[in-house]
Automatic annotation (TrEMBL):
Protein name: Phosphodiester glycosidase family protein
Transmembrane segments: 39-59
Region described as Disordered: 1-33
The species this protein was found in: Brachybacterium tyrofermentans
InterPro entries for the chain: NAGPA, TAT_signal
Length: 341
């Protein structure tokens, strides 16, 4: 049964692909920004909240926290999939451009192309791990449910993450297959997903053609449910610029030049975690979905999958925000994907 509670004022904005911190070295200089990047849906919810009969709906849909699993750490412990500090390598060291240990190598680079208003800037982390379960997920406030959010850097700090990116903002919807760190939390197939298996392989798949139980039995470690797939067999799929992820307000369309977050696959136990900045003319305009796939292909990936973007797009390295989020800071979100050590 869901347990409602009052939301935290700073953590109520729903996800959308719309509308600083220290970078990996080197980092582009921040350009002057323009007003008008307020979260449209957040403002919309506020308006609805003041329109009589719509107020209860808006509060329940966008603000009220609905806890389904109150202790995720306990759920992982019961499933035998939790990781303790003693199980992580003790020889990890942050370097000038990432992190290295006896089990993990993370190399972060920033790059850009174009000039003037056409400039596009991104941050890419090449992640190589000896054990695929070192790439983990974490939920805001260590709870699973709807509208439960927290800043990604806070979630990352709570789990001693080496590197983290925002996830799929599962908490904004009640559909999708959600398996995290080997535990099933939701089994409502709806769209194309991404599954990271415990053997280090990764596949884009059709959620409606399988189930959470079948995926877990096949060795699924984490699933992500947003999309679309922007790179398949090294090629950008036709028609992805027309795909809609949800038909509800807020995520109806994810098209155009947007800040983006994506997962790319180079090979077994070798991922690229990518964040493309946007909405900042002269620094980075944001990428279209085909461009996102092309960037991943140029980075050596054969598979690429789009995650929640816009103001949610963020990369955390060694506890600090590495990119330049379009909100001039972090947006609270439901979850992160992170490297444990």
């Amino acid at each position: 049964m869901s347990t409602p509670r009052s939301p935290r004022p700073s953590e109520t904005a729903p996800p959308r692909n719309d509308p600083a911190p220290s970078p990996p070295r080197p980092r582009p200089r921040r350009r002057p920004t323009r007003l008008g990047r307020r979260a449209l849906l957040g403002g919309g919810a506020a308006v609805l909240a003041g329109t009589g009969g719509s107020a209860a709906w808006a509060y329940d849909r966008f603000l009220r926290e609905k806890v389904e699993v109150a202790d995720v750490a306990a759920a992982e412990s019961a499933a035998g999939t939790s990781t303790t500090a003693a199980e992580l390598p003790a020889d990890g060291t942050f370097t000038a451009d990432g992190y290295t240990s006896s089990t993990t190598t993370v190399t972060v680079r920033s790059d850009s192309m174009g000039s003037g208003s056409d400039t596009l800037t991104w941050y890419a982390a090449d992640v190589q791990v000896a054990d695929a379960t070192l790439v983990r997920s974490a939920f805001a406030q260590d709870e699973f449910g709807r509208n439960i959010t927290e800043k990604p850097s806070t979630i990352a700090a709570d789990h001693a993450a080496v590197l983290a990116i925002n996830g799929d903002y599962y908490g904004f919807r009640d559909t999708g297959i959600v398996i995290r760190n080997g535990v099933i939390y939701r089994d409502e197939p709806a769209r194309d997903g991404l599954v990271l298996f415990a053997d280090g392989t990764v596949e884009a798949y059709d959620e409606t053609a399988t189930s959470a139980e079948e995926l877990l039995a096949a060795g699924a470690w984490n699933t992500l449910s947003f999309g679309p797939t922007v790179l398949a067999d090294g090629q950008v799929p036709a028609g992805i610029e027309d795909i809609e992820i949800d038909t509800n307000v807020g995520n109806h369309s994810i098209q155009g030049e947007q800040p983006r977050t994506a997962v790319g696959v180079i090979g077994t136990n070798n991922l690229v975690l990518l964040v493309v900045d946007g909405r900042d003319e002269g620094y980075s305009r944001g990428a279209t979905l085909p461009e996102l796939g092309e960037i991943l292909a140029d980075l050596g990936c054969t598979t690429g999958y789009n995650l929640d973007g816009g103001g949610s797009s963020v990369m955390i390295l060694d506890g600090e925000v590495a990119n330049q989020p379009s909100n001039h800071g972090e947006r609270a979100t439901s979850d992160i994907l992170y490297v444990a050590g």
